[in-house]
Amino acid sequence: MKRKQFVVCGLGKFGTSLATALANSGYEVLAIDRDEDRVQELSNIATHTIQADTTDMEAVRALGIKEFDVGVVAIGNDIQSSVMTTLILKELGIKYVMAKATNAIHEKVLKKIGADRVIQPELDMGRRVATTLISGSIIEHIQLSADYSIAEVPALVEWVGNSIIDVNLRSKYGINVIAIQGKGRLDISPRPDYIFNKDDVLVVVGANEKIKALNK
Description:
Layout: E1 5-9, H1 13-24, E2 28-33, H2 36-41, E3 48-51, H3 57-61, E4 70-73, H4 79-91, E5 96-100, H5 104-112, E6 117-119, H6 121-134, E7 140-143, E8 148-154, H7 164-167, H8 169-173, E9 175-182, E10 185-188, E11 201-207, H9 208-213
Parallel strand pairs: 1-2, 1-4, 2-3, 4-5, 5-6
Antiparallel strand pairs: 7-8, 8-11, 9-10, 9-11
């Protein structure tokens, strides 16, 4: 099966970090920036690095990026360049474009012109760190929407030695178990007769208030 190909436009801290992580995971990455020094920094990491102006339609078209599956617009401070680059990637036929925004107005504009996903990395990270600090028993947390999340939760003391069906997580706690991680193992979609161990960490999905209630 063909692996996804990514084009990352803008090689500031966020774009460089993202392009590096994707390349290190074995994906084909085309990294683009106006700044030659930034491009050079990634030349031995990304699959391809190009110095180019991503607000120039013809220059971007010449790079053949329509063959890429995902476009990432990691340009933050220059809102005009961010908007133009996002619009060009969509018009050139990239199916999925994710763009970085610096504020709510920027995010709204990016969504209006067709960005499939808009993120505010600093805001998103702040929310995740706050959740971790507030919820002592929650190891990691990913918000799916305003109402639902995926979280990693250590097995409660009262669960140890009992099975999933005995604990009745869905009815009693309002959560569903996606996976359970223990010492050196990971069970995806564990069976109802799975017996909890004291070192287990559950990956659960559920309403935010239900997940928060596990910390009480």
